[in-house]
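Example 9 (inverse folding). The structure is encoded as follows.
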């Protein structure tokens, strides 16, 4: 505690030990030190329980201190209870609201998100777009599909650079399914890029928050599996779902990858997971065959001047299963 007060440039700019001791005595005996002293003491304390004790002691003297409440909410497990008390006292700030927005988002408390989202301050266009997405997600989760659809439609029209990755697409597909517009849902999925934007979380630096939409992707892909009948689109779905489960969930959708390979024979992203799937099933001949097919397809695009080097490649297709 003394060290914190001694090196505090605001309270003790001359690093005077006597001044530090004086603040220390006042803090725990006289109760006349500044709210900032409690904040710094809490900051330099290791255990969370002790930090909370110091901040609560400070709030006894300074019951309307925004900075003490902000620090307390930041470390407390009872954030919502503290925030409700603040609202009753009309003590609030943008940074506290942003802190609670992040908490509600991680807790998937969509009703509270809708109550707080329009009060947040921001300056960046990307933040405005991010908040629109979260509002659309919240409305969808609360079964307000038409309102969510309108917001997501606007986002899809303007976010041509995919700053929100594919989150708007997957949310909108769910809206359309709920609104019984399955053909349009399939069309939105068909418009999704195949070889990029495979990131399933979005961060916003201005709000200091991250939105993970992995659960939404999984839910959407599984719903589409029952709706899509067009073979080419089903192949795309199985490719996306097979790779999603393999890389994001550490699970194997063997049937998806095997089906997708029939349509995307030269799609190298499918091969590695498929080979590993065969190996896990102890199907070494099949794994070897897929591996050779991978090599063969990877060599075919090379310029004709290299063709003599690979002229013996016929053995791949002519070899029998035992070989």
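The amino acid assigned to each position is listed next.
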């Amino acid at each position: 505690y003394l060290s914190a007060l001694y090196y505090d440039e605001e309270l003790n700019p001359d690093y005077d030990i006597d001044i530090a001791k004086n603040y220390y005595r006042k803090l725990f005996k006289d109760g006349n030190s500044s709210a900032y002293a409690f904040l710094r003491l809490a900051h330099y304390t290791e255990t969370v329980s002790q930090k909370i004790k110091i901040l609560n002691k400070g709030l006894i003297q300074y019951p309307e201190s925004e900075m003490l409440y902000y620090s307390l909410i930041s470390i407390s497990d009872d954030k919502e209870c503290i925030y409700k008390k603040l609202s009753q006292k009309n003590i609030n700030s943008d940074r506290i609201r942003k802190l609670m927005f992040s908490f509600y988002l991680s807790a998937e408390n969509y009703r509270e998100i809708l109550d707080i989202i329009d009060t947040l301050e921001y300056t960046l266009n990307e933040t405005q777009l991010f908040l629109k997405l979260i509002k659309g997600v919240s409305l969808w989760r609360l079964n307000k599909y038409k309102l969510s659809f309108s917001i997501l439609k606007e986002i899809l029209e303007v976010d041509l650079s995919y700053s929100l990755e594919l989150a708007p697409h997957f949310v909108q597909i769910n809206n359309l399914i709920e609104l019984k517009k399955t053909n349009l849902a399939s069309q939105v999925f068909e418009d999704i890029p195949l070889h990029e934007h495979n990131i399933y979380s979005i961060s916003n630096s201005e709000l200091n928050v991250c939105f993970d939409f992995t659960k939404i992707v999984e839910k959407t892909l599984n719903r589409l599996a029952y709706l899509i009948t067009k073979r080419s689109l089903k192949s795309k779905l199985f490719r996306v779902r097979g790779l999603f489960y393999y890389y994001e969930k550490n699970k194997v959708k063997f049937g998806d990858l095997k089906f997708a390979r029939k349509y995307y024979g030269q799609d190298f992203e499918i091969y590695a997971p498929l080979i590993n799937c065969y190996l896990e099933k102890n199907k070494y001949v099949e794994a070897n065959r897929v591996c050779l097919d991978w090599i063969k397809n990877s060599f075919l695009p090379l310029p004709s001047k290299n063709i003599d080097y690979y002229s013996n490649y016929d053995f791949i297709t002519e070899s029998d299963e035992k070989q």
